[in-house]
Amino acid sequence: MQHDNLVEIEDVAFDYGARPVLKGINLTAKRGQVIAIMGSSGCGKTTLLRLIGGQIKPRQGTVRVAGESLGELNQAGLYRLRRKMGMLFQFGALFTDMTVFDNVAFQLREHSDLPEDAIRDMVLMKLHAVGLRGAAHLMPSELSGGMARRVALARAIALDPQLVMYDEPFAGLDPISLGITGNLIRRLTDTLGLTSILVTHDVHESLKIVDYVYFVSDGVIVAEGTADDIKASDLPYVHQFVHGEAEGPVTFHYPAAPYVEDLRLGGQSA
Amino acid sequence: MNKTILDLWVGLFVIVGIAALLFLTLKVGSMNTVNNSDSYEVVARFENIGGLKTRAPVKSAGVVVGRVVDVRFDNEVYEAAVTLRLDKRYAFPKDTSAAIMTSGLLGEQYIGLEAGGDSVKLKDKDRILITQDAVVLENLIGQFLYGNAQEGAPK
Amino acid sequence: MLKQAIERLGNRTLQGVGRIGFAIRFFVAILLHSGTAFRRFGLTIREMYFSGVQSLIIILVSGLFVGMVLGLQGYETLQTYGSEDALGILVAMSLVRELGPVVAALLFASRAGSAITAEIGLMKATEQLSAMEMMAVDPIARVVAPRFWAGVISMPLLAALFSAMGIFGGYLVGVQLIGVDEGSFWSQMQSAVDFEQDILNGVIKSVVFGIAITTIALFEGYDAPPTAEGVSGATTRTVVTSSLAVLALDFVLTAFMFRGLS
């Protein structure tokens, strides 16, 4: 049975040790959409992706992917579900001891008994889709950052997953690679019928391609809406984020004791 | 790294490694442990075995013919019961004697077998009747001193 | 002050015990997920190249020199008692029982163990292990177990090669250079070295060392903090911990094997 929502997150909370990272998040991703989760660095965006991938378990709440609740699955069930997911890690996370070709072929070889001829064709198709068919014989160390990320994207879609997650796909890319990657995500989502979830803080690039945006701050969702909603939003936090202003609800200073007190200038003898 | 070259190297490594093990087994060591199937066991009782231990060699005319496999105290006769495992190739007469010897002055102790003249041979689980105990150095010195004292004593 | 010191000691102890617990669970997980390492033996063969074949040079050269030194020193000592014929026994016994397994294991720990830790640690730091998990491939089965079995298989072979090479070195110095009688060198050696007592026990030792070193190396890599200092610290810890483990295990094993408990 086909659910309209591929990913459903209900009231999820998660702590790293004693530090709460997420405090009750609700989020859904509809099939065929590109969703962006935005927020400043260290607000728990990557944690959210790891929860969807089932690499960590929430303290409370449920995560459902393709109608299955991750908390109720055992290791085998989780692995079966993960074959429907692809994930693009921040710096690609390519296997450094394999060529580009072997990296993309990795899942096909691990999870299927296809003959090597068929694998070869499928790998070259995926590499062609990201424009790197000619780089098949290179080692990951010979690739630029943008190319490595495209190879990782080809690897993530090797098994034709339903869901692809991107962890900071735009971080550290030059403007040209930025545009290429953004277009690629949109095009692959549309042509392959994927659902994409982006975690990013690059507002301008992602607003060009996403259907729906969630803003996360301090462990909760503070704003959500379509790209146009967000651009027009007058919520102070969103406004500060979209326009990159230094002052606003998010302050420049890490919480501390009053400056004057800290410097012991308040008439106290040192 | 080409896969076939890699396989070749690992194959070579395994062959050389096993060759080294074989070299150690055949050239450096020897199967001193006499196999159960090619051996028979006899028991000898001693009043004193000195420092004899299991795995000590059993020699006849200086040639190793077996090993000590068990040393225990027989609580009925208050003697040590030593089990010897002998190679089947060597058959000894029934009246063979066993003595506990020492190689060199302070070396390891072994059992020396001296063949008798009986036409009946020792069989598995037989007992060697004629035995000679280990020489205990303290007793030897004691005897020596005692003998000297007697000699020197005024009559 | 004293209270703080005691607290710190308690904290350290708890952490240490916790880590040992994790290491043991990790070891059990490796054994449980070893199917892939044997079903696709090519993975294990590949790792045998990196841990076994690439350790060959250091093992062979060290073995030769250790044997040559044993030949020289042994001769010096034995000729004082006029028993230089027993040089073969001395060289072979020291190598087969102790030096072969132990020194080969120490070299293996610093050559292959550190490389394993650094590799696994970097794979973790660059999220390759997470990526593998997300691709529904268990990194314990696919990455860790083949390295474990490669180390366990390689270690006794390397120890045997070390001993053989050492005996050859002792033979070179003792017989060819100094002129100990060749016949008595080999025959005395053969009559004294026992297969079960000496050679087999030496092999058992090296297998145990192989298990200890690879488990420590893999665990340290898997457990390393995903930073540059984390990986380098873990690599150092692998060499220190596994060397100490080898020496301590050697004492325990020797006590059991050569105390006449047979």
Q: What labels describe this entry?
A:
heterotrimer, A: 270 residues, alpha/beta, Rossmann fold, six-stranded mixed β-sheet, 10 helices, 36% helix, globular, C: 262 residues, mainly alpha, 87% helix, elongated, phospholipid binding (chain B)
The succession of helices and strands of chain B, N to C, reads HEEEEEEEEH
The pLDDT mean of chain A sits at 83
Number of helices of chain A: 10
What sort of overall outline of chain B do the alpha carbons produce when their principal axes are compared? elongated
Q: What is the CA-CA span between the terminal residues of chain B?
A: 97 Å
Number of strands of chain A: 10
Number of domains of chain B: 2
- Give the tally of structural domains of chain A: 1
Q: What is the count of helical runs of chain B?
A: 2
> What about the largest sheet of chain A?
6 strands, mixed
Average per-residue pLDDT of chain B, rounded, comes to 82
- Characterize the overall form of chain A: globular
Percent range of helical residues of chain A: 25-40%
Q: Show unreliable segments of chain B.
A: none
Pfam families (chain A): ABC_tran (PF00005)
GO molecular function, one term (chain A): ATP hydrolysis activity
Organism (chain A): Sulfuriferula multivorans
InterPro entries (chain A): AAA+_ATPase (IPR003593), ABC_transporter-like_ATP-bd (IPR003439), ABC_transporter-like_CS (IPR017871), P-loop_NTPase (IPR027417)
Structural features, described:
The complex is a heterotrimer of chains A (270), B (155) and C (262). With 270 residues, chain A is an alpha/beta fold. In chain A, 36% of the residues lie in helices and 24% in strands. Chain A has a single domain, classed as 3-Layer(aba) Sandwich (Rossmann fold). In chain A, helix 3 crosses helix 4, helix 3 packs parallel to helix 5 and helix 6 runs parallel beside helix 7. By secondary structure, chain B is of the alpha/beta class. Chain B folds into 2 domains: 30 residues; 103 residues, no CATH class. Chain B is built from 2 helices and 8 strands. In chain C, helix 5 packs across helix 8. In chain C, 50% of the residues are buried. The model of chain C has no long low-confidence stretch (mean pLDDT 91). Classes of the chains: A alpha/beta (270), B alpha/beta (155), C mainly alpha (262). Chains B and C meet through helix 1 of B and helix 3, helix 7, helix 8 and helix 9 of C.
